[in-house]
Amino acid sequence: MFPKIFKIIISFLFLLFGIYQFTEDYIGNGIFYILISGLFILLYFKNEFIFLAFLRLRKQDFEGTLKWLNRINYPERNLVKKQQGYFHYLHGIILSQTNLTQAEKHFKKSLTLGLSMSTDLAMAKMSLAGILMQKRRKREAIILLNEAKKLDKHNMLGEQIKILQKQLKRI
Predict the structure, then answer these.
(1) pTM for this prediction
(2) Lowest model confidence (mean pLDDT) among 28-32, 63-67, 101-105, 132-136
(3) 47-170 in CATH: which number?
């Protein structure tokens, strides 16, 4: 993994070399180097290890997800703010299977750092509400569930939210 500044520098160098190739009438090479430059800019905003961790999570491979997340050294320094949010979001999902206190901390941190998609925000709030419900903190759980319901625009989490609301009524 390259640090953020190296990604920008490498992208800038490929862009300059692509422009140089255009001036030398090597149009195909110039286009290729500009595309490579765009790839490094994409990797600046989308971390490759977080992407691979999401692919592992889709297969329900929590150990593989944790392996890819552990490859990120110094997430505060090497990741953009939204990527840090997803880093903590993935840790929260993994830890919600075993350690609820740590999962709660990671979900709260991911919500403060921010997530780019509203469904991810809804999922994080719903998971945090479930953790708070297990800890008998009903008011906070109700607030988070209502926020998650508002964020779930495509009704992907509708059934899970209804189940959690029924369980909250029993408490």
Answers:
(1) 0.80
(2) 132-136
(3) 1.25.40.10
